[in-house]
Design brief:
The protein is of the alpha+beta class. Helices cover 33% and strands 40% of the residues. The protein has helices at residues 44-54, 58-71; strands at residues 2-8, 11-19, 23-30, 33-34, 40-43.
Length: 75
């Protein structure tokens, strides 16, 4: 499991990246509880295709979307 931490409005958040072998899931936590209702995901195939075809890191993109949603106050 990959973990990325960030601070917003003085609160510590943790973005967890988990893979089940078929898909990658990104979820934001605060105090070990989900920070919002969203779960961001992509299949492993899509992650690989995006990287090979466009050079975009799909997992990093999901992390940035998750972080922005927290910063924008989406619950």
């Amino acid at each position: 499991m990959q973990v990325e931490k960030f601070v917003h409005d003085g609160k510590q958040f943790e973005i967890r990246v988990i893979s089940d072998g078929e898909s990658v899931y990104v979820k934001v936590f605060h105090d070990n509880r989900p920070a919002n209702r969203f779960r961001y995901s992509a299949t492993i195939e899509l992650v690989q295709d995006m990287n090979q075809i466009t050079g975009i890191d799909a997992v990093k993109h999901l992390i940035e979307i998750a972080k922005k949603d927290v910063q924008d106050g989406l619950k």
